[in-house]
Amino acid sequence: MQISRRTLLQGTAGLAVAAPASVRAADGEPIRIGLLTVKTGPLASGGIDMEVGMAMYLKERNNMLAGRPVQLIVADTGGVPATARVKTQELVEKNNVHVLVGPLAAFEALAIDDYITEKQIPTLSVAAAEDMTQRHPNKWFVRATSTSAQCAHPMGEYCAKVLGYKKMITIADDIAFGQEMTAGFQRVFEDNGGKIVQKLFPPLTAPDYGTYVAQVKSDADAIFLGFAGSNGFRFLRQFNEYGLMDKVKPIGGMTALDEAVLRNMGDEALGIITTCWYSAALDNPQNKHFAPAFRAQTGYDPGFYAAGTYTNAEILDVALQSIGGKAEDKVALMAALRATKTDTVRGPVRFDDLGNVVGNVYIRKVERIDGRLMNAIIKTYPDVSQFWTYPPKEFLANPVYSRDFPPAKNL
Amino acid sequence: MKWIPTALVLAAAALLPLLGGDFYVNLASQILVAVLMAASLNLLVGYAGLTSLGQAAFLGVAAYTCAWTGVKLGVSPVVAAGLACLMTLAVSALFGAIALRASGLGFLMITLAMSQVVWGLAYRLVAISNGDNGISGIVRPSPLGLSLDSPGAFYWFTLLVVVLALWFIAILVRSSFGATLAGTRDQPQRMAALGHNVWLIRFAAFMISGFLAGIAGLLFVWYNKYIHPSALSMTASAEALLAVIAGGSGTLAGPVVGAAVVVLLKNYASAYVERWNMMLGFVFLLIVLFLPEGIVPGVKRLLGRGR
Question: Which portions of chain A are predicted below pLDDT 70?
């Protein structure tokens, strides 16, 4: 087995006492965890947070899970599906990993879908692709974060019932993630009496949102932002410059005002309401430890990717303990992962039959706390499943969320 | 005795699955696909003097046709492959008819523009391509009833196809057609004056090049069992061009070496070097500075000087 210099550094850096590798090997064969992340290209900021989150969890436990030493092998997919597959093969065939954490993006998860089935590798991902746990479930896949629409469903209800909005606009990156998220929002919002009067899908790499901001129907009550990465931040800045903030209230999906971009924003973000399964401001024992520790290490608050990967590590830890650390028994590990019920940084989690998380979704509002912008929790929807309140059978009989489903009747 | 080195390389390549682990066999399969891609482009760049920045479009057309007909229409892999070849030929004919109105920089820009159209369609024609989700669930064919699901079997299949294709290219460039093609590259006006139809010769080369890239596309989609628009992005086309230029355009071995270098740097070295993009750039910089004609001719020159 070859160990890269980088892997070795991470491995040893994790040990409080820098023991030589030969001593560690005497403790028994390590559990090998492969982390598929993105460290180059446009998705890199989230990917680097994933690595920090994972390394932090292992470091806190002296690189031991369930009584066995752990070796973390990090692979950079570059955010390209074909490379994600290559890197997965490398982790599985060359590094012989027992379990995969990642990948980051939906299309990466879809690219390795058949491979992890063939090789039977338990995979804990943050990728949100709906059908990975719905119409084409993969039994080697668990998702402790959420599907694209899982957090948008409660927001649809919140906008219609609590905020009392009648007419709304949706705007999102023109990728599956953005389309699925806004479709889920639209469905619940309209089922609660609201009307989506406009749907906008700028390309993922739009250099300028001027032409989209100019199209926004200013008689709508609010606009739902299904952006990922830094796009939400860039859109909001232009939206603000056009003086639309007071006319059409921006409402954020789970990645629009992520902690990772919030740190670059100013007072224009104050008061914006968003939905997510996590906030750095969450008040639970796990997060009270994690968020300040992450902040101390990196200088900023943890967001979607850091918390998601840390949650995955917590779940993996619990599952490994329940099977006595026998990571080689993949079937048992997979069953243990799916049976996991534990408290994590995002709150209590458990999994449904398809391997997707059932957990809290938080409605959050940007406030200034300790001199910096944070997503303060204003409402908790407990135990939200990927099907929201719809019966799973009926939900799965529909086509997957897309630009065209559910159909928009009120444009 | 000039065939001995080639035979040794082939024998070594054929024995690889018996020696290396799955990872290395899969890596070698990917190199072979990249080699075919680069060799097909070399026909245009090296032998016809037409630099194209749109070669990935043909890979994409073949891959998407195979995936769409196989997965959504449910035809067998062999039929899907046949349809993919026909579709690639049709698209090559269309693109060739348009792009060959120009040569030089104009040709490069038109091929770039048209490949971007195909890439855009792959993203936007969601009903066919699944857009950003890509198409998964592609089945590999089983020629003569032999399953290609194991890394070794697929590697041998790919090796056979790529070697046949390279052999075909070798015969082609040494034939009278190859000579006229080189003529249109070096002296198009004289060739026209001699009565050759320069446009038709170039068009034939473009079709052959597109078809071979389509074969690479089939191997690509069977290898990955998944296709996503990123496979036909400009980056993919540029990588193929880079392989040709780095290896040495206008030589038979150049694209083979160039593609191997690109794939190894991208997929193998990236596990050991954090800033692998930078390293990639650095390696190409060194090639341009010290072996400007490409690795294969450059190394030959250096060896010749040493004697």
Answer: 1-27
Tell me, yes or no, if A8 comes closer than 8 A to chain B by beta carbon. no
Q: Is B152 part of any domain?
A: yes
Q: Which residues of chain A lie closer than 8 angstroms to B132, CB-CB?
A: 106-107, 174-177
pLDDT in tens, A280-297: 999 999 999 999 999 999
**Residue A176: closest C-alpha in chain B:** B132
Q: Work out the number of other CB atoms within 10 angstroms of the CB of residue B24.
A: 17
Q: Tell me what pLDDT residue A374 has.
A: 94
Tokens for B119? 């890439």
Residue of B nearest to A128 (CA): B133
Q: Is A6 within 8 Å of B274 when comparing Cβ atoms? A: yes
Please name each of the domains of chain A with its CATH number.
5-147+284-359 (3.40.50.2300), 152-282+360-397 (3.40.50.2300)
In a domain, B250, yes or no: no
pLDDT in tens, B220-247: 999 999 999 999 999 999 999 999 999 9
A114 touches chain B (CB under 8 A): yes
Whether residue A129 lies within 8 A of chain B, CB to CB, comes out as yes
Work out how many domains chain B is built from and give that number: 1
B291 in any annotated domain = no
Q: Looking at residue A403, what DSSP letter applies?
A: S
- Domain interval for residue B11: 3-231
Contact B134/A81, CB-based, under 8 Å?
Answer: yes
| B213 or B20, which is more confident | B213
Residue A61, exposed/middle/buried by CB under 10 A (0-12, 13-18, 19+)?
middle
Beta bridge partners of A379: A363
Q: At what angle do helices B105-124 and B77-99 cross, to 10 degrees?
A: 140
The confidence score (pLDDT) of residue B306 equals 59
For residue B242, is it within any domain? no
